[in-house]
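re: that chain from earlier
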Amino acid sequence: MKFSLTLDTFIISDSHFGHQDVLVKEPLRQLFARKHGFQDFDAYSVNMWNAQVNRDDFVLHLGDLYFNRGWKYLLELEGTKKLLVGNNDLKKYKRLQDFTDWSVCKKIKLKIKDKKKILKKIGDKWGKDIFKDKLLNAIVIDMAGERIMFSHFPVMDRKKNDRYACTREVLDSLYKICDCSLNIHGHTHSRNTKNSFCLNVSAEKTNFMPIKIRDVMAMRSF
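^ sequence. v structure.
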């Protein structure tokens, strides 16, 4: 089934299946799981996913999907699924692509006018080799009166010595060149950015379940 991005597409980020350290960094995960009768957070996460998503639904995951211990949980998830590669997916997405029904986005995909001109501007400014960066990925699309960039990293928000600063600077530039009005992202977990145009769909912000894009957009404060 061809992946279709619409207002009814489900979205989530930073599931971190099989990642033990994130349970310490984000204690809300275990609290939610135990509140609902689960000792295993990943089993709880699968349960929440499948309670929302049916076999014929589309799910866009904005990166940091799983760690090695989490592989088995991926096989239980419902829906037609696409991963936009995050920083913790770099050594794992190929296995996902080769051995599951997941599709993978590891480049810039512009579903707007003048996409060739926009990509040329990026290449002219940063050099064509920049497109070899698998973390330089995003989907830009017009939807419900907004021009939305879907990305793992939020735009215009990073630490002083961010290890992915170059990639993120290009994404910031892409957001501006495309004249986007909204950035739907992950990466920051329970922390929101200070930008009103950035909407965080990390699992901590979606109650650990995929939610529809239309519901994410309704969260925007003007």
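The two ends are 36 Å apart (CA to CA).
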